[in-house]
Prior knowledge:
Order of helices and strands: EEEEHEEEE
Largest sheet: 8 strands, antiparallel
Strand content: over 45%
Number of strands: 8
Mean pLDDT: 91
Radius of gyration: 18 Å
CATH class: Few Secondary Structures
Oligomer: single chain
CATH architecture: Irregular
Shape: elongated
CATH topology: Factor Xa Inhibitor
Amino acid sequence: MAAQRGKDILLKIGNGATPEVFTTVAGLRARTISLNARTVDATDADSAGRWRELLSGAGVKSAAVSGQGVFRDAASDAAIREAFFAQTARRWRLIVPDFGVLEGPFLVAALEYAGQHEGEASFAMSLASAGEITFEAA
């Protein structure tokens, strides 16, 4: 796989309608997607050579997303702000070029606003998965 541009990773928030319409979160300069799976230790006195054994498929899976950037789009800013204050899970679509598309419900776990006196206003947000995340390979 060739090197990829970080700016091509897209985060989109759904509007809750049927069919779902997604709005790209504009102005993001940095974004991180973390996929996690907790392990379940099934080691006991009979484990071969006393090596740790993990129970396959038993752990809890989660996804976390963080992003930071500058305000560029009133529609996506309003959707994120509304999702945070309502603390409702909204559908998000995460597009990673040459990898695939992740989609599912996320809560806005953190939302930060900042600004320098002689600079632009910026924001940072963190999303936490709130249900099953689907994956479609690119």
